[in-house]
Design goal:
By secondary structure, this protein is an alpha/beta fold. Helices cover 32% and strands 20% of the residues. Strands 7, 8, 9, 10, 11, 14, 15, 16 and 18 form a nine-stranded mixed β-sheet that branches. The chain has a six-stranded mixed β-sheet with strand order 1-6-5-2-4-3. The protein has a three-stranded mixed β-sheet with strand order 12-13-17. 48% of the residues are buried. Pfam families: Peptidase_M17, Peptidase_M17_N_1. It is an enzyme of class 3 (hydrolase).
Length: 462
């Protein structure tokens, strides 16, 4: 993420951007010259959302120009209303005519995200810079955009380069940059304290060995908040192996860990007054002679026993040990992120993360923060009536149900067993991937629920 995409407005030269919607376009056009109206007509610009027009200066001798963008409401800007402009305009410096960009600073930055790590000849086009009169908001806007783009970077990186060791390296970078304390338990050492993390990850090759990653940050006297992220760096399905099509996007199965790491860094960079506990169980669910099997019974950090009904329901296993650890420190709140179930995608599609909480107040605060910041989650229930779907004849619980009903909620109910009694908890079942591009949001790794969670935390603890 280029740190110079937004800059304070000190009166420097800049190309003007005018915003208009379809209802106001005729009035706007009356103030233009004939050649200017003709230029917009040639571009088929009518003021519809995400349209971009280039308008020449009125004086034919002047080689200047200004831009016009179509938005839903020029008076109420959203995160994404300038994103198409940021994608389409040539490199240069721009100023929004008559008002400050406000929340649109976010989409202006994220629209210029490019994942070119593996391209031998990356696009060298220069940045589009937007000026803002509110210089005090620049740092906050940059932290927000960097967090979103970090999620994209981590998810977009293939599993060979973003395995458990890669997630550990990212956690180490964040801890060093912000004065956090890193602790990592790796390989066979997991068997005692984190047996489900060990069981899921033990079949992977040594350089992809499983690990439990923790970062502690902040004053010990501050309210304790735990952020937990599912770090399945590649999911073959284990012995219940996925199809080729099912494996194609499984580099993104560490999307929960990507959200947790990015949120943790955003909290640290913003100096939010909390005692942060980041927990990332990182594994590869591989197939080998020592892979865990359907029918096995696993021990857990919690002390419960889990019968394995499906080795492809592995994310909830590693989260179980991680949530137990987070609960042991008596946090005021635990939030976990996980690319957990296909059922959530069937129910809500890719754009809305499924949100499950123990308390209505927690859900209400997250939904309100999401709506206010164009990152709305959608709440699904945790109904006690479905706990029986996880019953086991030989263990305390099964990890998978044998029927096709309410899969996202049943996965949430499994996780609930490992969260401490009385602990406030929110669970995001997120896709972590955008299958179709939108302005400011390219196809590929994507953050959902990240901004909702940060702004909820900021409102609650700052």
């Amino acid at each position: 993420m280029n740190t110079e995409l937004i800059q304070p407005d000190r009166g420097q030269d800049a190309t003007s951007i005018h915003l208009v919607n379809a209802d106001g376009f005729d009035t706007f056009a009356k103030g233009l010259s004939g050649p200017q109206r003709a230029a917009l007509a040639a571009q088929k610009f009518t003021g519809k959302g995400y349209q971009v027009g280039i308008v020449p200066a009125k004086d034919a001798k002047d080689d200047g120009w200004f831009a016009v963008g179509g938005v839903a409401n020029p008076e109420e800007l959203s995160s994404w209303c300038l994103a198409k402009l940021a994608e389409s305009l040539p490199a240069g410096t721009y100023r929004l005519d008559g008002r400050d960009p406000g929340p649109a600073l976010h989409g202006w930055q994220t629209a210029q995200y490019v994942f070119d790590r593996y391209k031998s000849d990356p696009d060298a086009e220069g940045p589009r810079v937007l000026l803002t009169e509110k210089a005090g908001r620049i740092d906050a806007a940059m932290f927000e955009a960097r967090a979103e783009c970090l999620v994209r970077d981590l998810i977009n990186t293939p599993a060979e380069d973003m395995g458990p060791a890669g997630l550990e390296a990212e956690a180490e970078r964040i801890a060093k940059a912000h004065g956090g304390k890193l602790n990592v338990v790796r390989g066979d050492a997991l068997e005692q304290g984190f047996p489900m993390v060990h069981a899921v990850g033990r079949a992977a090759a040594r350089h992809h060995a499983p690990r439990l990653i923790e970062v502690e940050w902040g004053k010990e006297s501050a309210p304790r908040v735990a952020i937990v992220g599912k770090g399945v760096c590649f999911d073959s399905g284990g012995l219940d192996v996925k199809s080729a099509a099912g494996m194609k996007l499984m580099k993104k199965d560490m999307g929960g860990a990507a959200h947790a790491l990015a949120l943790a860094e955003w909290i640290m960079a913003s100096e939010l007054p909390v005692r942060l506990h980041l927990v990332v169980p990182a594994v590869e669910n591989a197939i080998s002679s020592n892979a865990f099997r359907p029918g096995d019974v696993l021990q857990t950090r919690k002390g419960l026993t889990v019968e394995i009904g499906n080795t492809d329901a592995e994310g909830r296993l590693i989260l179980g040990d991680a949530l137990t650890l987070a609960s042991e420190h008596d946090p005021e709140l635990i939030v976990d992120f996980a690319t957990l179930t296909g059922a959530a995608r069937v129910a809500l599609g890719p754009d809305f993360p499924a949100l499950m909480t123990r308390r209505d107040e927690t859900a209400d605060a997250l939904i309100a923060a999401g709506r206010a910041n164009d990152d709305e989650p959608w709440r699904l229930p945790l109904p006690e009536a479905y706990v029986e779907y996880l019953a086991s004849d030989i263990a305390d619980t099964n990890n998978a149900q044998s029927n096709p009903y309410a899969g996202a909620s049943v996965a949430g109910l499994f996780l609930d067993k490992f969260v401490g009694d009385g602990v406030e908890w929110a669970h995001f079942d997120t896709f972590g991937w955008r299958p179709f591009p939108k302005p400011g949001r390219p196809k590929g790794g994507a953050a959902y629920g990240l901004r909702a969670t940060y702004h909820m935390l900021k409102g609650r603890f700052s």
